[in-house]
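seq as requested:
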Amino acid sequence: MDSAAAQAFGSNTFDILVAFALPYFLKVVIDGEAATISTDNAIRDGIINLGVLVVYVCVLIFQRWRLTKAVGYLFIAIYLIWVVYTFAAFLVPF
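struct tokens:
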């Protein structure tokens, strides 16, 4: 359990500090000017991400914290729906 918690914390820290920031850092270095970050849909996307988290936790509580094949497939399906939504929102902003 400690290993899983450390992995989740480390992964999220890496995402925030490197994966999200690196493209903007490179843009600043290459262009030599400040990068602008659009926050137009941040609240909507944050609510969606929070909703997905709530669904995950509720499913795990309902399953008594057991990850069965069916739950795994459900989580993969939810993740794929989120990925499709993210790409669709990026390509065609709504």
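The chain has two domains: 1-37, 39-94.
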